[in-house]
Amino acid sequence: MNRIILAGIAAVGITTAAHSQGIEGGQVRLGYARDTTNDSNLTSLGGSALYGLGGPLAIQGDLARHWEKGANNNTTVTGHLVYRLSETASVGGFLTWDHVPGTRVGRGIGIEGTVRMDTSTPVELEGYLIRSSANGTAADYTGLGAKASVNVTPQSQLRAGFFTASDGLEFDRYSVGLGYEFGNGLGMDMDLARIHKPSNSENVVSLGLSYKFGAGSTFGGRGLMDTLQGY
User: What is the domain count for the chain?
Assistant: First the structure.
């Protein structure tokens, strides 16, 4: 727990310093996910920063650390190249790197897009396609993910998500959740997920606390552990 607290302080310090140097936005999130089927849990700390390159181009960097009960820890690094089609729509490409010591080193590449529709009930959609290779092992996979968020009040959102993996790892993840913004960049989220695998199914409950500055981040995390927790 002390490691998580210290890492959280460091992450907030880094993003605050980055903000003062002109980065457009970013966020830090502390999350906890519990697999109620297998009695296991995963604690995550992640951060992202968005930097404009001029005109419609920007880059986003993500870094996340995951601590899993009774298993190896995981580190995920992702870089996104963002092209902003408008103030409410962006497309991009990304590279991601997953490292589980002694178990898995995964390298992924993909494309992604997001759009926000500012109607009387604002809606935000995000989708991506990824191919991840883990040294040619059974942990390779091709994945397709989508998320949607609908504002039910100015401060709260109803969320839904889907991810499917094949060509190696085989699973489908369905989720529903809620988000709430307290103001001044602080927010929380809750996610209920069902993960279907060829051999069994699992139920996962996730909670998160986040701090967003500036414009926030354009895209979500793309690592395998990010996906399983819903980060």
Answer: 1
